[in-house]
Amino acid sequence: MSSGIGKNLDEILKSEKIEQTQSTQNRQDAQKLQSTQDNITQSSNATNNEEEQDMIKSNGIDKNNMDKDEDNTNNLTFNTNLDVSECDTIKLGDILEKMIEINTIVRVERIFDESEVRGTKVINVVVNDGTRKGLLSLWGNQRSLLKDVVVGDSILIKDAEAPKLYNNRIHLKITNSGNLIKVKSNLPSLNELLANGGSSSSSSRKSIADLQEGDNTELRGLIVALHTKEPYFPLCDDCKKKMVLKKGYAVCKCGKKIDEEAEDLKWVFLVNVTLDDGTGTIRLTLNDENDFLDFKNLKKMVIDDENIMELLNKKLMGLDIVVSGYAKHNDYFDETIFQSKFWHPSNPVEEIKRYLTMEK
């Protein structure tokens, strides 16, 4: 990989050859990036349709260091005469957490309204290149980079860093020396990207034995174990934490209290299972992005204090499923796990067609 398309910050910080003039800034960067460790795995699939909340939730480096960022962005100047040919670029799907010096060409899928976080104004942008979606935060004066940009435009994001991968969306932040500029590209149109689900690699399939960290792919196998004791629970809309049911109410540690049957109370399904495809096993998380399970019935069972694990074991144990998602390292288990986006029971007819197609 070229030095211009993403270096692992951990490796750089271990090097004894960092120039003295950069040491202070690098220490600050390391402290910022360390604060973005994955502390929201229990609710990662609960916010698929809340991109801006995802950004604020996982981009803690900006919230905790807002005063410093505001001082920096007030002094930014941007070069609009950028030579795109000189930039080595990387696909969103190939970016890993904590990479820096990232150049990537993407299409703008959505531009959020300007918001304010702890006194600093920010605009969040959903970007897409067909391999993955990304969330770009533009803080302070960086917002001016969007002056002539509209949804559907192709843009080059230059010299960015990726503090966080969350819900299979890579979060990007342009550095003080970075830039954003409209460019011509060979990317499919936005309508084509959206029609393909925004991920051209999601239709590929790999065996567990061949799976590598960062792969955005599809697996097929049998569920051989369930590990979650409380897989269906209400989620606090304010702090995105798991709520507890008490005497007809869902109660959160942050103090929020809401009727357990309220229509606006969000319920989350997250069950950790082990998948076996004959080449190996892997732990993965199943979400509610399917119609295989009756979630209304599961909700009623939880409210009535019934044990839903007996039902889930009957429905899921030994089930042959196809699951699309991405492989990531889990610090708690110190192993690679698979974070699912969509899953469904395998269709024998479709699997036969797939096999015959591969044989040709």
UniProtKB/TrEMBL annotation:
Q: Where is the composition biased (Basic and acidic residues)?
A: 8-19
Q: Which InterPro entries match?
A: NA-bd_OB-fold
Region ranges (Disordered): 1-53
Q: Write out the biased-composition intervals (Polar residues).
A: 20-48
Query: Which branch of life, at top level?
Result: Archaea
Record's protein name? Nucleic acid binding OB-fold tRNA/helicase-type
Q: Which organism is it from?
A: Methanococcus voltae PS
